[in-house]
Amino acid sequence: MKKLIFTLSLFCLITAAFAQSCNTGVANCTVIPLSAPGLAPVSDSLPPVIDGVPNSTTIHFQNYDTLTFQGHALTMDSLQVLQITNLPSGLCWATNKASNTWGNQENGCILVTGTTWAEPGQYQLDILINAYTTFPVSPLTTSAAIAGLYYFVRVNCEASSPVNPIDTTHETTTDTILLYSAAPYNQTCNVGIHEVNQSVNGLSVYPNPFTSQAEVSFSSAKAGVMTEKITSVIGSTVYSNQLNVVAGVNTHTINRNTLSAGVYFYTITDGVSTFTKRLVISE
Fold it and tell me: CA–CA separation, 140 vs 154, rounded Å?
C-alpha cells in the first residue's frame, strides 16, 4: 500500500482572491484505472493549451489507500475535490461525479474545458480537498499541494510554439496561491480583436469573517451583467444573484440570511472569467 505523508495544517484553506475556479458540473469523461494513486498523465505529457483554441483535456485520478498524519497511520475512506484554482482564465473543470468524491483507491477523471487567451506559461493548479479518514478530526481540509500532489497546465500562443518542459522548481506548498504564471514563456501572442482582458480587479469582502452582512467591492473593466453566487465547501449553490455592473468601482451588500456559520466561497463571473473569494460566516 502506498502512503502519502501529509505535512498539512487542519486549518489550511484557500484564500486566493482572483483564482479561476469554474466548475461546470458532471464531466463526460472516461474513467481509466491507474496503476498507482495520484494524477495522470504527468504534466510533461499533457499537451499545452493553445490560446484561442477550444480545449478539452482529461486528467485521470486514483484516490490513495493509506496516509500518515501526525504519526498516525490512517485509512483513506474517501477524498473530495472542493475547488480547483489557478486555471488559466476561460478554462473550467468538472469531474465524473456530481459529488466530486471518490472512495478508497477509486479511480476518477477530471475534465478541463474552455478557451483561454491567458499569458503563455505554466500554471500550477491548486486543488482544495477534503480527506475523510479514521483520524478523530475528519475531514482534513487542505490544499493538495501541501500533501505534495502537484499538477501543471501549460499555455502556448500557437500549436507551432516550442513545448517547454515543466519546471518543477516552481512548485509551491503555500496555502495561499494567487493567480500567476509560475514560469512565463518568451512568446508574444498576436491576439488582435480576440484579446480578453481581466474583467474584475480588487475583489474584496469586508468584514470577513462576518456575522450578518458584508460589503463586496470590486472594479470592473466594463459595464454589463454579471452573476454572483455563494457556494458551500461541497459545491452546492446556496445563493445566486444577477448584478448590473458599471465600469469602474462597484460596491454592494450581501446578507447572511439563513446560512449557517461556516466556510463558503463567493464567486463572481461575466461568463468568461470567474473569480472566487473565501467567505467565513461566524456565529
Answer: 30
Single pTM value for the model: 0.61
Cα distance between residue 81 and residue 18, in whole Å: 19
> How far is Cα 96 from Cα 102, in angstroms, rounded to an integer?
10
Q: Which of 192, 219, 241 is the last residue of a domain?
A: 192
State the DSSP string of 16-84: -SS----EEEE--------SSSEEES-GGGSPPEETTS-EEEEEEEE--SEEEETTEEEEEEEEEEEEE
Residue 170 sits in the same domain as residue 65: yes
**Cis, peptide link before residue 47, omega less than 30° from 0:** no
How many CB atoms sit inside 10 A of residue 74's CB? Answer: 21
Q: How far apart are CA 44 and CA 46, in angstroms?
A: 6
Hey, what amino acid is at 260?
S
- CATH code at position 205: 2.60.40.1490
- pLDDT tens digits, one per residue of 74-88: 888 999 998 888 888
By three-state DSSP, how is residue 168 classified? helix
Rounded Cα distance between 218 and 165, Å, is 36
Interatomic CA distance for residues 116 and 54, integer angstroms? 8
Cell of 26: 458532471
Q: What is the CATH number of the domain that holds 133?
A: 2.60.40.2310
**For residue range 2-38, what is the model confidence (pLDDT) as tens digits?**
333 332 332 233 333 334 457 777 888 999 999 999 8
Compute the distance between CA of residue 262 and CA of residue 279 in angstroms, rounded to an integer: 8
Residues ≥6 apart with Cβ < 8 Å to 33? 62, 107
